[in-house]
Amino acid sequence: MGKMVIYPGSFDPITNGHLSILRRALTMFDSITIAVASNPIKKPLFTLDERIATIRESIKDDDRVFIDSFSGLLVDYVVNQKTNIILRGMRALSDFEYEFQMSLMNRKLNKNIQTIFMMTDYKWLYTSSTIIKEAASLGGDIKGLVPDIVCQRLKEKFGY
């Protein structure tokens, strides 16, 4: 098996920005595991199973992409997956400080873990799962910002 990277996140929901990072990363890595975080502190709109299902439908049948979930420390999960690389997407300067702190903490917890940062495509610069959920909750048209299955599931969640 070649070089594998872990792409962690809550993916609540997955966006076209996430998928753009995924597609571009597949040009650099042999396989990617999308690791969906089960974090009891966060209050996701979608259940863990719903998030995994929408991701699975969004990526279809790419045999280089695996979908899994994890709880606890990301560095422990990464080691258990027999890799040492974390992939994180960044949109703007506002993401940098948080991602930088997380990367340094992960390195403190395990000095063998490396974090790769990939900038989003310019058209996804101001797109986030939070903003998409807010727009959808108010009846906004989010088509084109998320995969069709996510658009459908958001409409169902918000009853329109």
Describe this entry's structure for a reader:
By secondary structure, this protein is of the alpha/beta class. The chain has a single domain, classed as Rossmann fold (3-Layer(aba) Sandwich). It has six helices and five strands, in the order E-H-E-H-E-H-E-H-E-H-H. The protein has a three-stranded parallel sheet, sandwiched between helices. The chain has a two-stranded parallel ribbon with strand order 4-5. Helix 1 (16-25) links the parallel strand 1 and strand 2 (31-37). The protein is globular and about 50 Å long. The mean pLDDT is 93.
Topology:
Blueprint: E1 4-9, H1 16-25, E2 31-37, H2 48-59, E3 65-70, H3 74-80, E4 85-90, H4 93-109, E5 114-119, H5 129-137, H6 148-157
- Which CATH top level class fits? Alpha Beta
CATH topology: Rossmann fold
CATH architecture: 3-Layer(aba) Sandwich
Write down the overall geometry.
globular
Order of helices and strands: EHEHEHEHEHH
Measured distance between first and last alpha carbons: 45 Å
Taking strands numbered 1, 2, ... along the chain, how are they ordered across the largest sheet? 1-2-3
Count helical runs. 6
Low-confidence stretches: none
Beta-sheet strand percentage? 15-25%
Largest sheet: 3 strands, parallel
Query: Portion of residues in helices?
Result: 40-55%
- Structural class comes to alpha/beta
Please identify which CATH superfamily we are dealing with: HUPs
Number of domains: 1
Mean pLDDT: 93
- Find the count of extended strands (DSSP E, 2+ residues): 5
Which radius of gyration do the C-alpha atoms yield? 15 Å
